[in-house]
Specification:
single chain, about 160 residues, alpha+beta, four-stranded antiparallel beta sheet, 4 strands, elongated
Amino acid sequence: MNDKTADNGARDEWASALAEQADADLATGHGTDDAWGDAMAEQAGSSKPGTGEATNAGDSVFKPLEGEAKAGTPRELDMIMEIPVTLSVELGQTRLTISELLDLAQGSVVELDGLAGEPMSILVNGYLIAQGEVVVVDDKYGIRITEIVTRSERIHKLNK
Protein backbone atom coordinates (compact mmCIF):
# COMPACT_ATOMS: atom_id res chain seq x y z
CA MET A 1 0.00 0.00 0.00
CA ASN A 2 1.48 3.35 -0.99
CA ASP A 3 1.16 6.71 0.81
CA LYS A 4 -1.51 7.96 -1.58
CA THR A 5 -3.76 4.98 -0.89
CA ALA A 6 -3.25 5.35 2.88
CA ASP A 7 -4.15 9.07 2.69
CA ASN A 8 -7.30 8.29 0.69
CA GLY A 9 -8.29 5.61 3.25
CA ALA A 10 -7.87 8.06 6.15
CA ARG A 11 -9.87 10.70 4.28
CA ASP A 12 -12.62 8.19 3.63
CA GLU A 13 -12.75 7.29 7.33
CA TRP A 14 -12.98 10.98 8.31
CA ALA A 15 -15.60 11.64 5.65
CA SER A 16 -17.66 8.72 6.85
CA ALA A 17 -17.33 9.78 10.52
CA LEU A 18 -18.38 13.36 9.70
CA ALA A 19 -21.33 12.13 7.65
CA GLU A 20 -22.36 9.87 10.54
CA GLN A 21 -22.15 12.85 12.95
CA ALA A 22 -24.20 15.04 10.60
CA ASP A 23 -26.88 12.34 10.34
CA ALA A 24 -27.02 12.03 14.14
CA ASP A 25 -27.32 15.82 14.50
CA LEU A 26 -30.15 15.96 11.98
CA ALA A 27 -31.95 13.14 13.80
CA THR A 28 -31.75 14.97 17.14
CA GLY A 29 -32.42 18.41 15.65
CA HIS A 30 -29.06 19.83 16.78
CA GLY A 31 -26.47 21.09 14.34
CA THR A 32 -22.75 21.05 15.06
CA ASP A 33 -22.68 24.81 14.46
CA ASP A 34 -25.32 25.37 17.15
CA ALA A 35 -23.21 24.88 20.29
CA TRP A 36 -24.52 28.18 21.71
CA GLY A 37 -28.06 27.05 21.05
CA ASP A 38 -27.37 23.83 22.93
CA ALA A 39 -25.92 25.77 25.86
CA MET A 40 -28.90 28.14 25.93
CA ALA A 41 -31.32 25.21 25.86
CA GLU A 42 -29.44 23.60 28.72
CA GLN A 43 -29.58 26.85 30.71
CA ALA A 44 -33.30 27.16 29.99
CA GLY A 45 -33.72 23.68 31.42
CA SER A 46 -32.12 24.85 34.70
CA SER A 47 -34.38 27.88 35.09
CA LYS A 48 -36.97 28.30 37.79
CA PRO A 49 -40.17 26.58 36.67
CA GLY A 50 -42.70 28.95 35.15
CA THR A 51 -40.60 32.10 35.61
CA GLY A 52 -38.10 31.93 32.77
CA GLU A 53 -35.40 33.08 35.23
CA ALA A 54 -32.11 31.25 35.58
CA THR A 55 -31.50 29.86 39.03
CA ASN A 56 -28.70 31.30 41.11
CA ALA A 57 -26.31 28.88 42.81
CA GLY A 58 -26.58 31.08 45.90
CA ASP A 59 -30.29 30.28 46.17
CA SER A 60 -29.49 26.73 47.20
CA VAL A 61 -26.36 27.53 49.23
CA PHE A 62 -27.31 30.65 51.22
CA LYS A 63 -30.45 30.97 53.27
CA PRO A 64 -32.54 34.05 52.45
CA LEU A 65 -32.82 36.64 55.21
CA GLU A 66 -36.16 36.22 56.89
CA GLY A 67 -38.06 37.27 59.98
CA GLU A 68 -35.82 38.54 62.74
CA ALA A 69 -32.84 39.34 60.50
CA LYS A 70 -35.02 41.74 58.49
CA ALA A 71 -36.50 43.16 61.69
CA GLY A 72 -33.06 44.41 62.75
CA THR A 73 -31.69 41.66 65.01
CA PRO A 74 -28.56 40.52 63.17
CA ARG A 75 -28.37 36.89 64.25
CA GLU A 76 -25.79 36.21 61.51
CA LEU A 77 -23.45 38.68 63.26
CA ASP A 78 -23.31 36.46 66.34
CA MET A 79 -20.48 34.40 64.87
CA ILE A 80 -18.23 37.45 64.40
CA MET A 81 -18.86 38.86 67.87
CA GLU A 82 -16.00 36.79 69.34
CA ILE A 83 -13.34 37.96 66.85
CA PRO A 84 -10.67 39.85 68.79
CA VAL A 85 -9.67 43.36 67.73
CA THR A 86 -6.95 45.65 69.08
CA LEU A 87 -8.09 48.89 70.69
CA SER A 88 -5.32 51.42 71.22
CA VAL A 89 -5.16 55.00 72.43
CA GLU A 90 -2.76 57.42 70.80
CA LEU A 91 -1.38 60.30 72.85
CA GLY A 92 0.37 61.86 69.87
CA GLN A 93 2.94 61.29 67.15
CA THR A 94 6.37 62.45 66.14
CA ARG A 95 8.85 61.76 63.36
CA LEU A 96 12.41 60.74 64.16
CA THR A 97 15.38 59.89 62.02
CA ILE A 98 17.00 56.53 62.59
CA SER A 99 20.02 58.21 64.20
CA GLU A 100 17.72 60.09 66.65
CA LEU A 101 15.95 56.81 67.41
CA LEU A 102 19.26 55.06 68.12
CA ASP A 103 20.32 57.93 70.43
CA LEU A 104 17.34 57.30 72.76
CA ALA A 105 18.28 56.01 76.18
CA GLN A 106 16.55 55.41 79.47
CA GLY A 107 15.24 58.75 80.72
CA SER A 108 15.10 60.34 77.24
CA VAL A 109 12.06 62.54 76.56
CA VAL A 110 10.34 62.29 73.19
CA GLU A 111 8.22 65.30 72.27
CA LEU A 112 4.83 64.43 70.74
CA ASP A 113 2.60 66.66 68.64
CA GLY A 114 -0.38 66.16 71.01
CA LEU A 115 -1.09 68.93 73.51
CA ALA A 116 -1.89 68.41 77.20
CA GLY A 117 -5.65 68.25 77.68
CA GLU A 118 -6.25 67.54 73.97
CA PRO A 119 -8.54 64.57 73.17
CA MET A 120 -6.76 61.26 72.57
CA SER A 121 -7.34 59.22 69.43
CA ILE A 122 -9.01 55.84 69.98
CA LEU A 123 -8.10 53.36 67.27
CA VAL A 124 -9.42 49.87 66.49
CA ASN A 125 -6.97 47.83 64.44
CA GLY A 126 -5.26 51.09 63.47
CA TYR A 127 -8.42 52.92 62.33
CA LEU A 128 -9.66 56.00 64.18
CA ILE A 129 -13.11 55.35 65.63
CA ALA A 130 -13.40 57.89 68.47
CA GLN A 131 -11.80 60.62 70.59
CA GLY A 132 -11.56 60.54 74.36
CA GLU A 133 -9.91 61.84 77.51
CA VAL A 134 -7.67 59.98 79.93
CA VAL A 135 -9.14 59.03 83.32
CA VAL A 136 -7.62 57.26 86.33
CA VAL A 137 -9.76 54.71 88.18
CA ASP A 138 -8.28 52.68 91.07
CA ASP A 139 -4.69 53.49 90.00
CA LYS A 140 -5.37 52.31 86.44
CA TYR A 141 -5.58 54.40 83.31
CA GLY A 142 -8.72 54.40 81.23
CA ILE A 143 -10.27 56.53 78.54
CA ARG A 144 -13.66 58.24 78.54
CA ILE A 145 -15.10 58.46 75.05
CA THR A 146 -16.07 62.04 74.27
CA GLU A 147 -16.76 61.80 70.53
CA ILE A 148 -17.43 58.95 68.12
CA VAL A 149 -16.22 59.39 64.54
CA THR A 150 -19.18 59.36 62.16
CA ARG A 151 -19.45 56.67 59.52
CA SER A 152 -18.93 59.17 56.69
CA GLU A 153 -15.74 60.49 58.35
CA ARG A 154 -14.42 56.93 58.76
CA ILE A 155 -15.11 56.14 55.10
CA HIS A 156 -13.52 59.44 54.03
CA LYS A 157 -10.35 58.60 55.99
CA LEU A 158 -10.22 55.09 54.47
CA ASN A 159 -10.22 56.62 50.98
CA LYS A 160 -7.08 58.67 51.67
